[in-house]
Amino acid sequence: MKPSHDSGANEQSLGTLLKRAEQAMLKSKTAALKPVGLTLAQFVALSELDTRPGLTAAALARACFVSPQATMILLKAMEQQGLIERRPHQRHTNVLEVHVTAAGREALHSGRMRIAPLDKRVIGSFSAKEARAFRAFLVAFINAVEPD
Predict the structure, then answer these.
(1) What is the DSSP string of 13-29?
(2) What is the pTM of this model?
(3) CA angle at residue 112 from 23 to 128, to 5 degrees?
(4) pLDDT lower than 70: segments of the chain
(5) What is the DSSP letter of 136?
(6) What's the CA gap between 72 and 25, in Å, rounded?
C-alpha cells in the first residue's frame, strides 16, 4: 500500500499544499515523458502548437506561462530535434510562425499516451461533483491571488 501524503495537511497553508500538488504532478509527468524523449516544457509547447498552429514565439510563451527568453531556448532545441519548424508569416515576413513537424506530432501523440493514465488516475480520485468543486476552488484561488 502506498503511503499517504496527507500527514499534517490540515496544518499546511493552501499555498504549500498547492505547491506540493504541483511538484508531485510535475515529477510524475516528467517521468512519464522521459521514455518518449520529451521534457515537460516541450510537451506543453507541442500541445499548445497542436491546438493553435502558427503561433509566434511570444504568443507561445504567454500560452505556456514562461518567459520569452525561456521559449526561445526551448524552440531552438525543439527545432534542432526536428519537432518544430519556424516559417515566415505569409504577409509579415519578419514574423516567424511555429509549426509542429510530423516528428513533433508523433512525439506529442506518444507523450499523450504516457500522460493519459496519470491524468485519469488523478481525475479518478475525485467524484464528478468533487472535481467540479476542485476546479471552482482553484479558479477562486487564482482570482484571489492574481493582481487586478
Answers:
(1) -HHHHHHHHHHHHHHHH
(2) 0.84
(3) 70
(4) 1-10
(5) H
(6) 25
